[in-house]
Design the sequence.
């Protein structure tokens, strides 16, 4: 598929974030998608259809706060390192490693967790504006992490607690679902539990949401979120006539 060079903009309420982000990732493009709302802006950097980095203006998403909450750095160590980073112009992570407050491995894992949390937090957004700008990334500012797009979408949807959003995405108890021809290709990129694999296998033949909930060992709520994620990824689809 040829990459698009057109900037896309719109209101998030008109397109749920899972659908929006997957429509971008599935095209194997490179670019930046940004969402703004409630005085916060978050951006996801995408390379060849894979999320590789993310930024946020939310103070709670900063690397220092992430490492502090996880217990990797003390309050004193964080405060001193922030001051050094501001004065020297160095990245905070580099300062923390230089001061031997964390290891290089801690830094990589901390950044990976930070980026995953920024991206998955956006699945909870229902208001705001989005902008997708395809094109080369500012590589001097981006740390390439090569995250799994499928896992991020699954993890993000697992964070959604709104029953009405999930119910709207699924459509009803008697809607039938079936695995698509993309199941083997796409599901190999996911870390699924045994119960989730079992649930997915039951979609090899048409099955209603009612039947899938009755037969699964998962909570009905978790069944619904999982099916929403699989629908978003195109691993399952609604049977013809039930769109």
Sequence:
């Amino acid at each position: 598929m040829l990459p698009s060079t057109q900037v896309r903009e719109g209101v998030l309420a008109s397109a749920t974030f899972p659908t929006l982000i997957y429509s971008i990732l599935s095209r194997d493009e490179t670019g930046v998608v940004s969402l703004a709302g409630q005085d916060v802006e978050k951006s996801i950097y995408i390379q060849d259809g894979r999320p590789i980095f993310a930024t946020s203006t939310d103070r709670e998403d900063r690397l220092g706060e992430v490492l502090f909450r996880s217990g990797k750095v003390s309050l004193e160590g964080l405060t001193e390192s922030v001051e050094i980073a501001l004065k020297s112009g160095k990245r905070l992570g580099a300062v923390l490693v230089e001061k031997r407050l964390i290891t290089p491995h801690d830094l990589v894992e901390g950044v990976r967790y930070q980026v995953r949390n920024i991206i998955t937090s956006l699945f909870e957004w229902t208001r705001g504006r989005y902008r997708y700008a395809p094109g080369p990334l500012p590589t001097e500012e981006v740390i390439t992490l090569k995250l799994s797009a499928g896992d991020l979408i699954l993890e993000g949807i697992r964070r959604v607690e709104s029953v009405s959003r999930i119910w709207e995405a699924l459509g009803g108890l008697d809607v039938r679902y079936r695995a698509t021809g993309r199941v083997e290709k796409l599901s190999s990129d996911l870390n699924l539990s045994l119960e989730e694999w079992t649930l997915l296998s039951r979609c090899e033949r048409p099955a209603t949401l009612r039947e899938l909930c009755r037969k699964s060992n998962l909570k009905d709520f978790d069944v619904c979120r999982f099916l929403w994620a699989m629908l978003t990824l195109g691993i399952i689809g609604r049977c013809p006539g039930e769109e």
